[in-house]
From TrEMBL, chain A:
Pfam families: Complex1_51K, NADH_4Fe-4S. This is NADH-quinone oxidoreductase subunit F. Signal peptide: none annotated. Its cofactor is [4Fe-4S] cluster; FMN. The keyword Flavoprotein applies. InterPro entries: NADH-UbQ_OxRdtase_51kDa_CS, NADH-UbQ_OxRdtase_suF, Nuo51_FMN-bd, Nuo51_FMN-bd_sf, Nuop51_4Fe4S-bd, Nuop51_4Fe4S-bd_sf. One of its GO terms (molecular function) is NAD binding. Belongs to the complex I 51 kDa subunit family. It comes from Dinghuibacter silviterrae. SUPFAM superfamilies: Nqo1 FMN-binding domain-like, Nqo1 middle domain-like, Nqo1C-terminal domain-like. Residues 340-385 form the NADH-ubiquinone oxidoreductase 51kDa subunit iron-sulphur binding domain. The keyword Cell membrane does not apply.
From TrEMBL, chain B:
GO terms for molecular function: 2 iron, 2 sulfur cluster binding; 4 iron, 4 sulfur cluster binding; metal ion binding; oxidoreductase activity. It comes from the Bacteria. Keywords: 2Fe-2S, 4Fe-4S, Iron, Iron-sulfur, Membrane, Metal-binding, NAD, Translocase. Residues 96-135 form the 4Fe-4S His(Cys)3-ligated-type domain. InterPro entries: 2Fe-2S_ferredoxin-like_sf (IPR036010), 2Fe-2S_ferredoxin-type (IPR001041), NADH_UbQ_OxRdtase_ferredoxin (IPR054351), NADH_UbQ_OxRdtase_Gsu_4Fe4S-bd (IPR019574), Prok_molybdopt-oxidoreductase (IPR050123). This is NADH dehydrogenase subunit G. GO terms for cellular component: membrane. Residues 8-95 form the 2Fe-2S ferredoxin-type domain. It comes from Dinghuibacter silviterrae. SUPFAM superfamilies: 2Fe-2S ferredoxin-like, 4Fe-4S ferredoxins. It holds the Pfam family Fer2_4.
Amino acid sequence: MGRKLLLEKAHVEGIRYYDTYRREGGYASVEKALKNLSPEQVVEEVKKSGLRGRGGAGFPTGMKWSFIAKPEGVPRHLVCNADESEPGTFKDRYLMEFLPHLLIEGLIVSSYALGSNATYIYIRGEYAWVADILDQAIVEAKNNGWLGKNILGSGFDCDIYVHRGAGAYICGEETALIESLEGKRGNPRIKPPFPAVKGAWDRPTVVNNVESLAAVVPIINMGGEEYAKIGVGKSTGTKLISACGNINKPGVYEIDMTISVEEFIYSDEYCGGIPKGKRLKACIPGGSSVPILPANLLLKTAKGETRMMTYESLGDGGFATGSMMGSGGFIVLDEDQCVVRHTMTLARFYQHESCGQCSPCREGTGWMHRILKNIEYGKGQKSDIDLLWDIQRRIEGNTICPLGDAAAWPVAAAIRHFRDEFEWHVNNPDECLKRNYGLAHYADPRPVPAATA
Amino acid sequence: MSDEKKMFKVTIDNITIEVEPGTSILNAARMIGGEVAPPAMCYYTKLKGSGGKCRTCLVEVAQGSTADPRPMPKLVASCRTNIMDGMVVKNITSEKVIDARKGVVEFLLINHPLDCPICDQAGECHLQDLSYEHGASGTRYQFPRRTFEKHDLGPYIQLHMTRCIMCFRCVYTADQVTNRRVHGILDRGEHAEIATYIKTALDNDFIGNVIDVCPVGALTDKTFRFKNRVWFLKPVDAHRDCPKCSGKVQLWYRGDEVFRVTARKDEFGEVEDWICNDCRFEKKKTADWVIEGPSKIDRHSVISANHYVGAHKPTEIEPEVMGRPPRLLMDIHSVSQVNQPSVDLSLLPGPAHSDDFNGKEK
Ligand SMILES: Cc1cc2nc3c(=O)[nH]c(=O)nc-3n(C[C@H](O)[C@H](O)[C@H](O)COP(=O)(O)O)c2cc1C
Ligand code: SF4
Ligand code: SF4
Ligand code: FES
């Protein structure tokens, strides 16, 4: 059994409510931090823990915290990124729904470390019931003296506010999130200045993922050094993985980052293998925006080593042979899946979610989607594959925010690793249309030829 | 010693200059001028927060600074990236930049129809210049283009949303120059559009400036649109005592008629002083103005064709051929079958209509 730090108590009856949570040892980290540690010491512990941001980019949390500017007399803010709109990623929802107090606890300690008296949870609008759960937990925490003025007599004041988004993936990008929090259109800002200097209402702000902030609780409880002993290399601690696709046991798993990808897919403790004994074809290991890997590169790295569920191992060799841990949305494809179709679906998502600020992303994502649609429905030409490659190449790296890259990478990786499949579509247009997915709304979009006498 | 400002050295396309700290790469390049200055479709010096969006000004930073000589991993938007001391920038000397810019032009032209022959901005369009200088001759886009319903923005301004390239300049202008912003961006991605939410009019003393900042023909002047082509007009600097604005404008003459009034622009096509609606839309008579003299046009646009200031003018042969002195090139009323001498286009209350040309008395 892998070690559990976050989900350890997830199945305790009533853990969602304050009394149970407290009885199970909850809020100990707040007591420890506010009574025994200075804010700097909390930051130091998080640095020692080696915790890397769980929102996608994997940037060291402690380092991010130490960048926050501290101008005299200017309030600072902590914002919890609970937007979670990446297709394939649903770990934060699970954590918030079953362990709302764990997040609140992490938020109080983190707010203390950063000097944030007003902390926000920006939650995806579609998670309406989760927002209600959080609201309720905040009231409970406040009633029990964990929030409000002068918490535990430490002189530290903190309030947490839940802010519901209106349902836009781009509002998960931290600067777009800040704009949206300020009540504006969710367009990413141009950096610099970074939020650590000028964030919400131009005040120094740290944006962190739900899971990152929850992880602060065990880090403070056990000490940063102890936490860093779990895992491998720079992939310390435990990671929540939301597994889905063609697996026997989809769900949210907490892994300590010492297991192999193969073990994760096939062992009964985790995904439990692929249904009906089908073969593994490919996997998108870190949420829809990261490159897809074919089975041969998924289980072994470029160096021929066993691929592990760690930041380093998943990225081994760069995008030609590797992918990313990303947000931990683990999407498995069996041998029957069509990579072209999947890529088209993802492209549709990204073109729909582009905010429209910068030209390559605004125009390029729609273009890619249309070409992919043509190829999938047997209307593509061979030159379309190269054209797609060219378009993604000119989007990647040339946009304001990483959504451009997120849209380009899946297309690039699909063509890189599954070019033959694209060519099959182009060469067998009629076969493409015969395939039956049992999905009525995916019917042939080509106009029906007029009946001939 | 102490009041001597520390200057930053920057090398752009192998030309080194010194600039003040806080200067953007784009502005440093503009100081050098010519081809070294990257094209800019969304940045506008006078509009705070503008820039960074269109991605036409991308450049390669081959050396970050003397202190940290590492190159920057990605191309950067020169309009929003400041110079560091010892920075080395490649604009047209970088293949990556040329390629990316070609890509940006292709992206921009996906949803911007090349209807220059019927567009009011022809001759003054930055996208036209940009495509000419950095684009490809053909398109690889084979799908239907997006279209929009025409959106009427009140008595003075007409929006052709199909032509909009989402540079956001007009939104920043309305936000920063006028005292009430009623228009902005609706929707997302390629569906995004400039609009007033409930189809209201843009009426505001300074709203006319959105026409000047629009780099393409999306926002047009209703008192001028389709009445003439800019290259037939003669820009003249003029001013008047205006209680609202500086009153410094350009009058665009054809013969003796003032066809339109705009703000004066610098060599990068940016407005020098914002002007009010009165000056722009209501003062179309020479008598309203103090004429300063012909405008100096040193833009690379077609407008500069036939316009002067110190230019060598070839000998006029029209008097001999036509038996009368030329008015600009020719008197359109006397040679055109379309324009009726009785119709004074500049005095029409709204846009010219076919009825105005085909001789029907109204
Ligand atoms: C388009 C886009 C969407 C994103 N969505 C999310 C999200 O839903 N949740 C999240 O935590 N981070 C998301 N991120 C990453 C955030 O910008 C940011 O890096 C993260 O919240 C930082 O938290 P961390 O340091 O704890 O990982 C997104 C980034 C991009 C570019
Ligand atoms: S990359 Fe896309 S989502 Fe990001 S700012 Fe540009 S248009 Fe918006
Ligand atoms: S209408 Fe013109 S100024 Fe406004 S965003 Fe579109 S192109 Fe830019
Ligand atoms: S001018 Fe720099 S991005 Fe538009």
